[in-house]
Amino acid sequence: MMKRGNQAHRTPRLLPRTLLSATALAACALLTACAVGPDYQRPDTEVPQQYKEAGDWKVANPSDAIARGKWWEIFNDPQLNALEEQVAAANQNIAVAEAQYRQAQALVQSAQASFFPTLGASASATRSRSVRTTVNPDGSLSVGNPSLLNSQSLSLNASWELDLWGSIRRNVEANKASAEASAGNLAAALLSAQATLAQDYFQLLVTDTQKAVLQRTVADYERFLKLTENQYAVGVAQRSDVLSAQTQLKQAQALLLDAEVSRAQLEHAIAVLIGKPPAEFSLPTQKATNFYELPTIPDIPLEIPSAILERRPDVAAAERNMAAANAQIGVAKAAYFPTLTLGGSTGLAANTLSHLATLPSRIWSIGPTLAATLFDGGARSAAVDKAGAAYDGSVATYRQTVLGAFQDVEDNLAALRWQARELEVQAEAVKAAQQAASIDLNRYRAGTVSFLEVITTQATAYTAERTLLTLQGKQYSAAVLLVKALGGGWHGEVPVVGQAALQPASAPTAQ
């Protein structure tokens, strides 16, 4: 009993001493800890000094650049503004990207949790029955009386892996970079949806104008058919002329029906982009009846090429993926080194519940554990090679993304520059064709030209006008794509999506 009492008295002195030693060991380990693996530096990529296809475009000063955020307002269209506001709030693809961003944030929190010790508690109660069996000298067995044994325990466990080689820090670094890349992916998805909506909206605007032109064409062809029938009735025209006029009218009516199909599909596409069923959404017919009533393309200020590396969300996401891949090299290299874990437990253990809370029932243990892999058949070396290859691939992806960004800008600069000249030439062609058609129609009424000449000049005039509208639609698309290529309104911030996007900028968001 004295021996047990001495042990009980020594326990309070031993426990603090051991804890002190373990704490000192942990402090020394943390002070001398280092992070293996390469520190991240963004690789160089070739950035041009100016845009090849800029022509007369002038690079804007930063204060004159496209406003961050609502870039679509440069088109000065209230209907487009109202539609664009709904994309961030209700588009389901944006909702998917936002959920993926929140997952990436949760992974960062999960990785940071490894910096701290883990605590656990356990409780158990068991009852067991045992029988002692002995072998007699003559080889027979003797079975003793069975005994029952009760056991109760209550314990608190703690463990802490020290980040000696930076494995945890590199893992946190990788997850943070991945979360930032996810934010870039969210911004890229939002910018893509907004640009697609703008393209569809302007294409619908052009389609409504084409419908107006076709309706006017049908009305003109109906009057021309009536004129031809009158000419046939008095013996001036032939039956074939009447049939040709009918064919011309029916073809124009078919084109008008096809325009109705295109408009309906564009309207449905816009509905889905703003998160609404097509059956519950409709847009009024636009009022423009010809090319000259359509809104003009606004001036889109350029920024220096290097700004694309900061403003394009897909470029930013590729760069952050590269940083995450670089950190994973450190995680793989840290596996070469031993891990040091501090563990401890304390609790109570007794054979009877009444003795569980007594002093002699207390138990504890504490101590470090050093573990290292001595042979793994090259698994760790392969993991390092894999991480290095993944990083090299991410570098190539980043550089290709940058090249693609510059190509997007150059493509749409070229499109806008040459389409502007093409529109001027086509507009002159439309005026000339319309004048020729008007002259030939008057001459046909006077009987000085053939019917074939009249329908030819009429078809040429209306085809030229529809071509002019098609070119205008392409120019709208190129303008939207140029804004997208320049990075839209993203400037490193995480976009506000969901219901919060519907709130005014000054209104506090719900926590």
TrEMBL record:
Primary localisation category: membrane
Coiled coil in keyword set: yes
Keywords linked to the UniProt accession: Coiled coil, Lipoprotein, Membrane, Palmitate, Signal, Transmembrane, Transmembrane beta strand
Location of the protein in the cell: Cell membrane
Coiled coil regions, renumbered to chain: 80-114, 406-433
The family this protein is said to belong to: Belongs to the outer membrane factor (OMF) (TC 1.B.17) family.
Protein name stated in the entry: Outer membrane protein OprM
Lineage: Bacteria, Pseudomonadati, Pseudomonadota, Betaproteobacteria, Burkholderiales
